[in-house]
Amino acid sequence: MSSDFESYEQDFGTTTAEITNKIGRIPKLSGEEKTQLILNVDKQLEEVRELMEQMDLEVREIPVQSRAMYNSRLKSYKQELEKLEKDFKRSRIAYSDEVRHELLGDDGGSSENQLIKLREERAHLLDNTERLERSSRRLEAGYQIAVETEQVGQEILSNLHSDREKIQKARERLRETDANLGKSSRILTGMLRRIIQNRILVFMLGAIILLTIILAIYFNLRGH
């Protein structure tokens, strides 16, 4: 899990370095080239924001004992992103003031400046459309995850219902087995009782026979 976070860190470092370099170049450019660079920076900042969201999700999956260190690193990255956004905002404000000054102060080039402004608005519109498409894709992905989660939940409920039926059947078999064991125990107890009674009768019969033999021998000897 931490390897994914470190991979995101590398992407963050590379992209923010590019953004810093481009923000520094904005004041040195003009016209269409400047407009395109501003739009490019805006797009990369959006990518960094999405990257931060991924990093935040990864931190939540890291074991608690290691999470504090990653939270600290994530906090510093967020602060760096906020600084980049402020620097970019100042550059855009300066650029807007520059365009406004050109539109109001130079009537001869007003048509060209208006064309540049229209191109900028068109580029912004395309950029916003792309953002909406990315948001729609994320929503669709979230919806798909929700559907899959619901399916998994239904499967779990179905399995639990099946397991409950199996447990109930096992309990019924256990009751039947217990009843059969009780019946067998009573039968064995009765058989044991009869065996003991038969042994007692055999013992008594043997004693009677032995006593009869002794008496017969005694009277026979006495008669002689």
UniProtKB/TrEMBL annotation:
Query: What keywords is this UniProt entry annotated with?
Result: Coiled coil, Membrane, Protein transport, Transmembrane, Transmembrane helix, Transport
One Pfam match, given by its short name, reads: V-SNARE_C
A cellular-component GO term for this protein: late endosome membrane
| Keyword Transport assigned | yes
Q: Which residues form a coiled coil?
A: 34-180
The record lists the membrane-crossing segments as: 200-221
The question of whether Transport is a record keyword is answered with yes
Give one GO molecular function term. Answer: SNAP receptor activity
SMART domains (alphabetical) = t_SNARE
Q: Where in the cell is it found?
A: Endomembrane system
Q: Provide the T-SNARE coiled-coil homology domain boundaries.
A: 124-191
Using the UniProt record, give the first listed, main subcellular location: membrane
Q: Which InterPro entries match?
A: GOSR2/Membrin/Bos1, SNARE, T_SNARE_dom, v-SNARE_N_sf, Vesicle_trsprt_v-SNARE_N
- Gene Ontology biological process terms, A to Z: Golgi to vacuole transport; intra-Golgi vesicle-mediated transport; intracellular protein transport; macroautophagy; retrograde transport, endosome to Golgi; vesicle fusion with Golgi apparatus
Question: What membrane topology does the UniProt entry give?
Answer: Single-pass type IV membrane protein
Family listed: Belongs to the VTI1 family.
What is the protein's given name? t-SNARE coiled-coil homology domain-containing protein
Phylogenetic lineage: Eukaryota, Metazoa, Chordata, Craniata, Vertebrata
